[in-house]
Amino acid sequence: MRITMPGYMPFPNETVTLTSHCARCKNIDGEQNNAKLMLTNMRLVYEWSSKTRMGDELSCLSYPLNELATQKDEIRADYQTSDYETSFKLHPAGEEVSFVFRSPEKNASRKVAAAWLDAINMAVTGTKSSAAMALRRSVPGVEMLAGALKDTFDVVKTTFAGPNTNQRSASVRKAITAKCIGCRAPLSGWTGMTVQCKYCDTVQTL
């Protein structure tokens, strides 16, 4: 394990793109207080504190993204899941590191882990993760919800659209970019549009 102290210190031009406080590292024995998993444009970082005789001690694990093992044009990732807990294992430079996400809400941990796998894979290869897709499909009702939303949008469009709908919509709607309220992933569309986040499946209005 690559433990550095006194904790996370950003490199020049390093930007944090995703953060979670509900992850724990399975490689670490002992307490993990104030734990935080971070994805940056350069590396994957896990920071936590533990109590010592001198007080709280801050430590972190750091894995450069370019050292994560890949296969078939995506990061090598193994996962395990249950109703309230989901973990995934990555393989940086011949090592193994596992993170677990727990949630009191049924299936919520699967969505969070899937969002992380997609984000890491996008940062490394520029594509989505097949493991994340499999995790989302394991959540009951997700595909049904996506289909229902599409049907609803189609009905609204058919009911209220008149001639030259595209021209009228362009004149009153404005292109917008935002961040998902669930996982902070980037979203884009038109003002007032209801969208479903492709990373964590949260439905929201732009």
- Report the portion of residues in β strands: 35-45%
Shape designation:
globular
Q: What order do the helices and strands follow?
A: EEEEEEEEEEEHHHHEEEE
N- and C-termini, Cα separation? 41 Å
Number of DSSP-assigned strands: 15
Strand order of the largest sheet: 1-6-5-4-2
Rg on CA atoms, Å: 20 Å
Low-confidence sequence ranges: 143-153, 155-160, 165-171
Oligomer: single chain
Percent helix, as a range, is 25-40%
Mean pLDDT metric: 81
Structural class: alpha+beta
Enumerate how many helices there are, as a single number.
Answer: 4
Q: Describe the sheet with the most strands.
A: 5 strands, antiparallel
What is shown here, in short?
This protein is of the alpha+beta class and about 210 residues long.
Describe the protein in words:
By secondary structure, the protein is an alpha+beta fold. Helices cover 26% and strands 36% of the residues. The protein is built from 4 helices and 15 strands. The strands form 5 sheets. A 5-stranded antiparallel β-sheet has the order 1-6-5-4-2, with helices on one face. It starts with a strand and ends with a strand.
Structural topology:
Layout: E1 3-4, E2 16-20, E3 23-25, E4 33-40, E5 43-52, E6 55-64, E7 70-71, E8 74-75, E9 77-81, E10 85-90, E11 97-102, H1 108-125, H2 130-137, H3 142-160, H4 165-172, E12 175-179, E13 186-190, E14 194-196, E15 203-205
Antiparallel strand pairs: 1-6, 2-4, 3-11, 4-5, 5-6, 7-8, 9-10, 10-11, 12-13, 14-15
Helix pairs in contact: 1-2
